[in-house]
């Protein structure tokens, strides 16, 4: 991991196309501005991890659970 | 083409059911081609990897379960998927043995371009949604800080 210090208003450039600017520092909260090409997805790491985890948990649904859900939605009349 | 599905075993799918996910989906980055198979008379689809039988997801129509669901598709996402007019939105369902425990992921919908047959799981920013909304009981959406 590359570790470096920046002051408010200073920028880091990654691969020519991605710029990270420190906008403000308030206690332990740092506000960061990121400029990147449109095709680059930027996420808060904890959100991305929660989506990965939800996807892994959702993969390969059990047929019995699926049938139970559909029966449940169709209601007792069918 | 014939693919191995988790739900129906061997199944013939048409070319127009195959969607390309250039970036895969989070947690399954290697899977870029999926068949979208509608389940007749239900608000569900199966998103089945054409390569890996166990990489199968149940998708639901979020508007059927959460009529107030809404988000703005960012321009860059629409551009990436080459969406012009037609768009389809489904959300991944996490099924549980206790049906009431099943959830739907409204924070990261699967957005599909039915014309170009491209797809992506997008992460909503500043949205009041999270990855686990109760499926069978619309919960009031509490403005949390879950948005990506």
Give the structure's gist in a few sentences.
The complex is a heterodimer of chains A (78) and B (148). By secondary structure, chain A is of the alpha+beta class. Chain A is 33% helix and 26% strand.
Helices and strands in order:
The complex is a heterodimer of chains A (78) and B (148).
Chain A: E1 11-14, E2 18-26, E3 29-35, H1 45-58, H2 63-74
Antiparallel strand pairs in A: 1-2, 2-3
Chain B: E1 2-5, E2 9-12, E3 18-20, E4 33-38, E5 44-49, E6 56-60, H1 62-65, H2 75-80, E7 88-94, E8 103-104, E9 110-113, E10 118-121, E11 133-134
Antiparallel strand pairs in B: 1-2, 3-4, 4-5, 5-6, 6-7, 7-8, 7-9, 8-11, 9-10
Structural class of chain B: mainly beta
User: Which range best describes the helical content of chain B: under 10%, 10-25%, 25-40%, 40-55%, 55-70% or over 70%?
Assistant: under 10%
> Mind telling me the C-alpha Rg of chain B?
15 Å
State the order of secondary-structure elements of chain A, H for helix, E for strand. Answer: EEEHH
Choose one word for the global shape of chain A.
Answer: elongated
Compute the number of helices of chain A. 2
What multimeric state do the chains show? Answer: heterodimer
Whole-number mean pLDDT of chain A: 91
Distance between the termini of chain A: 60 Å
Subunit structure (chain B): Interacts with translational regulator CsrA and flagellin(s).
Family (chain B): Belongs to the FliW family.
Main location (chain B): cytoplasm
Keywords (chain B): Bacterial flagellum biogenesis, Cell projection, Chaperone, Cilium, Cytoplasm, Flagellum, Translation regulation
Can you characterise this structure?
The complex is a heterodimer of chains A (78) and B (148). Chain A is an alpha+beta fold and 78 residues long. Chain A contains two helices and three strands. Chain A folds into two domains: 1-38, no CATH class; 43-78. Chain A is 33% helix and 26% strand. Chain A has a three-stranded antiparallel beta sheet, with no helix packed on it. The mean pLDDT of chain A is 91. In chain B, the strands form two sheets. In chain B, strands 3, 4, 5, 6, 7, 8, 9, 10 and 11 form a nine-stranded antiparallel beta sheet that branches. By secondary structure, chain B is mainly β. In chain B, 7% of the residues lie in helices and 32% in strands. Chain B is built from two helices and eleven strands; from the N terminus they run ββββββααβββββ. The mean pLDDT of chain B is 91. Chain B has a single domain (2-146), classed as Roll (BH3618-like), CATH 2.30.290.10. The chains are: A alpha+beta (78), B mainly beta (148). At the A-B interface, helix 1 and helix 2 of A face strand 6, helix 2 and strand 7 of B.
